[in-house]
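Methods — Computational structure assignment.
A single polypeptide chain was analysed. Its primary sequence is given first, followed by the predicted tertiary structure written as structure tokens.
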Amino acid sequence: MPNYWLSEFEEKKAPDMEPVEDPEDQVSDDSEDGTNSALSNRQQSLYKLYEMAVEEFGMFDKSSGPDGAHYAPADKNPFKEEGLVCNNCEFYLKSGNCELVSGKIEPEAICKLWIIPKELIKK
């Protein structure tokens, strides 16, 4: 299956994606596209890629299969103490849903698609 949506994204975004000294500390001031300006450039790029994938192929399911988000419910989330929970993720909606993963989402669950601003991650 061709990854033409990724090629299209890379073609449009390549000049903005040049390596930087410390990509985790680089934050964009531009938030008119809906991404949180507190996210690193890498996180903003991932945010856009995930949204494009969902637009093209539909939402992820909760499974660990090829279309799955590898969702771990709250009682099985080993990263809760570190702040790695759905409630802190950019895709989590107040309604208890997710922009990427189908079904109800527990606030303290986690999946492999999380994008959490640096200031919400506890060390």
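Note: The chain has one domain: 4-14+34-120.
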